[in-house]
Amino acid sequence: KGQNGSRFPRTSTTRITCFLHADSFDLSLKALHSPSRRIAGIDGLRALAVIAVMVFHADVAIGRGGYLGVDVFFVISGFLITSILLRELRSDGAISFADFFERRARRIMPAMLAVIGGTALACQLLRPEALPALGNDAIASLLMLANWHFVLNGISYFEKFEGYRMLEHFWSLALEEQFYMAWPLVVLAVAARWGRAGLGRFAAGLAFGSAVWMAWLAYTLGFPESMDINRVYFGTDTHAVGLLVGAALACSFARVKAYLRLRYQARRELIARLLAFCSLTGLLILLTQVAENHPLLYPLGFVVTSLCTAGLIFAFTISPSCGKVFDLQPLKWIGERSYGIYLWHWPVFALTRHGLDIDLSQDQTFLLRCLITLALAAISYHLIEVPMLSSRTPLINGNRQRLALFALSTAIVSGLSVFIIQTEQSDSLNHREMLLSSGAAPANETRRVEMQSMLQRYDLGSWRGGSQDVKAGASEVKENAQSAFAPNLEQPRRDWSAFLASAIANRTELGMKREADNLHATVPPTRESVHKATLAANDAVVPPSNVSAPPATSSTALSVRPVASTTTAVNPSNYTAITLFGDSVLLGARGLIERSMAEAAVHAEVGWQASDVLNTLQRVRESGELHPIVLIHLGTNGYVTEKQLRTILDMLRDRQRVLVVNTRVPKRWMAANNALIEAVVPTYRNTVLIDWFGISDSRSDYFVADGVHLTASGMRAFVAAVTSNTLIAQAR
Question: Tens of pLDDT along 212-222?
Answer without folding.
Answer: 999 999 999 98
